[in-house]
Amino acid sequence: MAHQFSLAYLTVQGCPPPEQIEIAARTGYDFVSLRPIYMGLPGEPNYALAENKELLRQTRKALADTGIKLLDIELARIHDGVDVKKYLPAMEVAAELGGRHVLSSIWTSDRALYTEKFAELCDLAKPLGLTVELEFVPIASVRTLAGALDVLRSVNRENAGLMIDAHHFHRAQDKPEELDAVPRTWFHFVHLCDAPAQIPTDREEMTRILREARLYCGEGGIDIAAIVSRIPAVPFSIELPNLARVKELGYEGHARRCLETAKAYLAAHPRPQAICCA
């Protein structure tokens, strides 16, 4: 089966959705992963499609004209004081555009709160035909595979999933064989990227690499093949923010290089014929 790839927002962060879709089409991707949930980060443009009807129209047209599909939207964060209903307009837009998944992560240490709110988010997404994918992040509150699995088992929602990011998996020092115990139905897509093998001990440096200095597949020290070989054949969303490469190559050049290097890496590390099932 041929691999399928999505161009994730952070790879071309700051790029408007219609342009991101057109770049994905020109460079050979199958999907895009958009950010129509405004996070209010410094310098972040607001691409909240539910609030900008003209941008939504342009995005819808770009998808129709190019044949690119919407894989997922981000980021439905669970944090102290969050009302997850605020994510509903973005999820409704995602469903309207043919999207499949909503990416979420947890930024509060209150286990009772994040379990309740993640379950509520899944319940809001279910009538829309969307899954909610929990991503553990090394600078967030749920930062390891074990933490994410605890949430998924606790909420017990059929539309809840686990999203593995190669960078985060490596930084969490999780072991690929631990993925064998994860139900296969929890995997819907994977984030691909590389990074230096040495794990930063400084949070600021960890954050800098995570947000702006990830590497092309095969360029760093993550054993990406060991991770993806334990996961069923699902789309690869290339989330590879690298501000220096974007400055050098432009959005399109960087997106193309991301895809070329990912394909070359996967071709050099073919998936085993049999994958252990849970």
UniProtKB/TrEMBL annotation:
Signal peptide: none annotated. GO terms for molecular function: isomerase activity. InterPro entries: IolE/XylAMocC-like, Xyl_isomerase-like_sf, Xyl_isomerase-like_TIM-brl. Residues 22-241 form the Xylose isomerase-like TIM barrel domain. SUPFAM superfamilies: Xylose isomerase-like. Pfam families: AP_endonuc_2. Keywords: Isomerase. The keyword DNA-binding does not apply. It comes from the Bacteria. The keyword Isomerase applies. This is Sugar phosphate isomerase/epimerase. It comes from Sporolituus thermophilus DSM 23256.
